[in-house]
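Appendix B. Chain record.
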Amino acid sequence: MLSDLQQRTQIGWLSEDELDDYDQFRRRFLGVRRRLLERLGELVDSDDTEARQKLYEDAHGFLTCATHLYRALGIDVTFTIRFPDTSTVLRKDDVHQDFLDFITHTVPKHGAYGTHSYYRHAFETREDKINFAMPPEVETDVDATATASWVFAGPTITALEDDITAALESRRGEDQFDERSHEPIPWTVPVADCTTYAGIRHVVEQFAEQKGFDAARGSRDLRHVVRILLAVTGQGVLRGSPYAVAEAMQYLAQPLEPGQSIRVSDFEYALGQLPAERLLPDLPPSVGKLAKVLLAAEEPLGRSEIIDRAGISGSTYDRRISELEAFDFVERNSDRKWEIHLSPWFVGEGPRSHPDLDNVSMSGMQGILWEVIEPEELDEEVCDALGDLDSAVLFDRFPWLRGWWAVLETLTAHLDACRDRGLLGEDSRQIRLGEPPPESDAVQTALRLSP
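Structure tokens predicted for this chain:
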């Protein structure tokens, strides 16, 4: 068993002592981690390239051990690498190449086939290690899986999607040891832009399934949930934050009955647990603060309570609550207290309707704007701008509309038409590493990379 763990699963820093005693195993691994951090501190200002390289090799090996161990325990691991300034990666050739080299050589290390390391099975070039790779007599049920997912985040990071895809595809024909007695089995690696409608839908589906909700693809309820999450967490038209959505899903309560459809009302408390800056980020920060207070409240709140909890001025409150009311995000009850609902009447899949829907003659953006602009302000210039949806004129006359524009476009977009135009994104782009055995056509999606 020890030999299998060391050579086939590639679990390092392991001996008979650690195998038989968990406390010893824990002390050994904590000791390795501590020593790696000490070495990192010692090399902060060092130009010792050889020592740095050795440290990075050991750290990569330790990280690979950890993801294999977590996989054995059934624990999902996700690495999120944030780029505050992606322009440097895009602009500087050396930085760009370093990033792609990282993708090329690091991601494939975190894969497994049965109890075997996929890297050793498919990419190992050291002759003394080849014998420990998965033998060629494989079963037809191909089961190569990831031990970790990778998320790359930052402004315009999606511009690197094609480069990430190409970097992974380049590994397919590389590092193949000439005397390997077998062809590597397949590992299909999806690369996805998770800021799109399709990406946010995937996040919702994954968490909803774990929570026990029904999130059937194509259902009205799922379309409604995804649209609202794009609008509330996103920056730009039909663009959302997968991090905000995933964090909110952590706070999502279990359904009252297993298999219950997931609805926007299920998310309102969960979204209220997010930092205010993640709510309606296209709008001034005070809107997010006000929304958070109402989402987190257990009962409707009055003016003074909202001002106090949100930490905003009375004049700011008056402006922002008026905007939220105009777009039907908040509603005042008979006690003159406010409650929030994230499903305005004009969202197509939503359950709510306009109180005077029969008299609403236009739908979409124009219908909303005709409703929210005061009648006395509908002069000829404004009416012409509304007819043409001339945002320049409307922003000039009503500056507060600027921040709401992308939110409204997301909430009113015709999803089927957007899909036909390719505006909703794709679930993923598939990169295949290795080849299936002749008797098998099966592949398993195992790893997701998403900016």
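Further analysis of this model is presented in Appendix C.
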